[in-house]
Amino acid sequence: MMDNISKREAIFYSHKMAQLSKALWKAIEKDWQDWIKPFQLNINEHHILWIAYHLKGASISEISKYGVMHVSTAFNFSKKLEERGYLQFSKRENDKRNTYVELTEDGVELLEATLNEYNPEDNSVLRGVVPLTEMYGKLPEFLDLSALIKEIYGDEYMEILERSLENIEEEANVKQPTDIETYKQKSKSS
């Protein structure tokens, strides 16, 4: 399989992919942090809330897998969210080995509030694809990237991604901007 790719080509490709991925992640990370900062959340916490929301409850292992984070990171940040009243830990009757988390009512409210506050104008990646969107009439679909991620993480990962995207399209619970001060106060009192 790799016989037709020279070592030089492989190094070139790996370096290019690493540089492009790192640059893209830096922009995504900054946009994400700026978006959720008013809610006193960090990226891992927000990602955990999002995963648990779309999976309608998830094990720590699932959060780790779909959030592409170490199990201890998933557990520790979930614990912090539980302490703040946004997640609830449980064991299932048919699976005592795994720890599961579900969003509390406050957790659902918080996640939906972050979604309501999302402003596409503040997203540098979205602004960056505007020329492509204007040229092709739609947002880029990144088929090559999706195929690569599927090869690395598997079908199940892509199925969860697709399910979460479908949930976003179906629910569209995006309302008017929320009172961010409410979440700042809740966070300080926790």
Strand order of the largest sheet: 1-3-2
Number of helices: 10
CATH topology name, in short, is Arc Repressor Mutant, subunit A
User: What share of residues are in beta strands?
Assistant: 5-15%
Number of strands: 3
Report the CATH superfamily. Answer: Winged helix-like DNA-binding domain superfamily/Winged helix DNA-binding domain
What does the largest sheet look like? 3 strands, antiparallel
Which class of secondary structure composition applies to the elements?
Answer: mainly alpha
Total number of domains: 1
3D shape: globular
> Which architecture per CATH?
Orthogonal Bundle
Distance between the termini: 55 Å
Helix proportion range: 55-70%
Give helix and strand order, one letter per element, not per position: HHEHHEEHHHHHH
Q: What is the arithmetic mean of pLDDT?
A: 88
Which spans of ≥5 residues are poorly predicted at pLDDT below 50? none
What does this structure look like?
With 190 residues, this protein is mainly alpha-helical. 66% of the residues lie in helices and 9% in strands. It has helices spanning 7-36, 43-54, 60-66, 71-83, 105-117, 124-128, 130-136, 143-153, 155-171, 180-189, and strands at 58-59, 87-92, 95-103. The protein has a three-stranded antiparallel sheet. A hairpin with a 2-residue loop joins strand 2 and strand 3 (95-103). Helix 2 (43-54) packs across helix 4, helix 3 (60-66) packs across helix 4 and helix 8 packs across helix 9 (155-171). The longest helix is centred in the first third of the chain and has 30 residues, at 7-36. The N and C termini lie far apart (55 Å).
